[in-house]
Design brief:
Layout lengths: L1 H17 L3 H5 L1 H37 L6 H25 L11 E7 L3 H21 L3 E9 L5 E9 L3 H5 L4 E7 L10 E11 L13 E6 L15 E6 L4 E5 L5 H30 L13 E6 L4 E4 L4 E3 L2 H5 L4 H22 L1
Parallel strand pairs: 4-9
Antiparallel strand pairs: 1-3, 1-5, 2-3, 4-5, 6-7, 7-8, 9-10, 10-11
């Protein structure tokens, strides 16, 4: 294991040298590629260097045990360092797990109202705000691509792109059915209603991922719908694209420019097609394993938000938090981190059983 890390440390040093080379800096595509590789290796190399330092300190303290005056202090240090070594060893094993190649990608977020009518649409809006505020905390960029608003507020459907560092890695376990329990504003009797929304997190497709032939597309343009007033489009700027081989349909009317709407619709179309391919691959892999790890199955009820009790429960990992207000304000780091740790440990366990 450590021989492999030493080879990776040599590569890490090479990358540091390359990233300071003016020729590489001038070649932005190459610079971004190397920067991404450097960022991917950094956590492992940092943990490995800490591990080596702890080993050196352990050896030094072992030698001090023969000194009566230093023995007690050395024993305390050995105990502390042994615990740290064990922790680092577990951390390194997780960091050595095969990485999801999509982890560093941007994402397309889709939220759709499900059971519950108007209340479900309102909750879709709440979820979109929650993810938008989480994105702000991480300094990610959120761009609305398409939405269908509900008459009483919220969204029947909302689609957005989120760009930034490790977006997919942090959000990929958010896919699934999100259930809400609360008293709707229209409920005179004060009864708690249960509604649901589905969330889809898809790694954004790049041009090299999907080869779409122009002949496979049917493109329609139409006039954008709106609430009226000076902002209503008076030209056919809305775009609907149908991918004929798969039947995938994407529409976009957020921009006044037909060209911009077409570009946004193509981005979503490519991402949906790539996501379908990845879902099929994951299903085939799962058939060969006893348990599918981190499936992100969208038919699965993954989380309940109980407003009367101020409680959020993630059913996959049994995590319950009583701070729903801060969660809906975008404070979901503890949830996303807990999910990543859980599935990493599951993957490590599956790897150990397979060896």
């Amino acid at each position: 294991m450590f021989d492999k890390i030493q080879d990776l440390e040599i590569r890490f040093q090479e990358l540091e040298s390359l990233l300071s080379d003016p020729t590489v800096i001038a070649n932005q595509p190459e610079f971004r590629k190397l920067s991404r590789e450097h960022a991917d290796l950094a956590p492992l190399i940092e943990a490995f260097r800490r591990y080596k330092k702890v080993q050196e300190e352990l050896q030094e303290n072992q030698e001090l045990l023969s000194d009566p005056e230093m023995k007690e202090m050395a024993e305390e240090e050995i105990s502390r360092l042994s615990e740290e070594k064990e922790r680092l060893d577990a951390e390194i094993k997780i960091l050595l797990l095969p990485k999801d190649p999509n982890d560093s990608r941007d994402v397309i977020l889709e939220i759709r109202a499900g059971t519950g009518g108007d209340e479900s649409a309102l909750f879709s809006g709440d979820l979109f705000r929650m993810y938008s505020r989480f994105a702000e905390k991480n300094r990610w960029k959120v761009e609305m691509l398409s939405c269908s608003e509900s008459e009483r507020g919220g969204y029947k459907e909302v689609i957005a792109s989120i760009e930034g560092q490790d977006v997919f890695a942090k959000l990929k376990y958010e896919s699934g059915t999100h259930r809400v329990q609360r008293v709707p504003e229209t409920e005179a009797q004060g009864r708690i209603h249960t509604s649901a929304c589905t969330v889809a997190i898809m790694a954004e497709a790049e041009d090299v991922d999907i080869d779409i032939r122009p002949d496979d597309l049917k493109i329609d343009v139409y006039r954008s719908s709106g609430a009226g007033g000076q902002h209503v489009n008076t030209t056919d700027s809305a775009v609907r694209i149908t991918h004929l081989p798969t039947g995938t349909v994407v529409a976009c009317q957020e921009e006044r420019s037909q060209i911009k709407n077409r570009a946004k619709a193509m981005k979503v179309l490519k991402t949906r097609i790539l996501d379908n391919i990845l879902q099929e691959q994951n299903s085939k892999m799962a058939a060969d394993r006893k348990q599918q790890v981190g499936s992100g199955d969208r038919s699965e009820r993954i989380r309940t938000y109980n407003f009367p009790q101020g409680r959020m429960t993630d059913h996959r990992i049994g995590l319950t938090l009583y701070r729903l207000d801060s969660i809906m304000a975008g404070d979901i780091e503890e949830i996303t981190d807990s999910l990543r740790t859980f599935y990493q440990m599951e993957a490590l366990k599956a790897q150990s059983e397979g060896n």
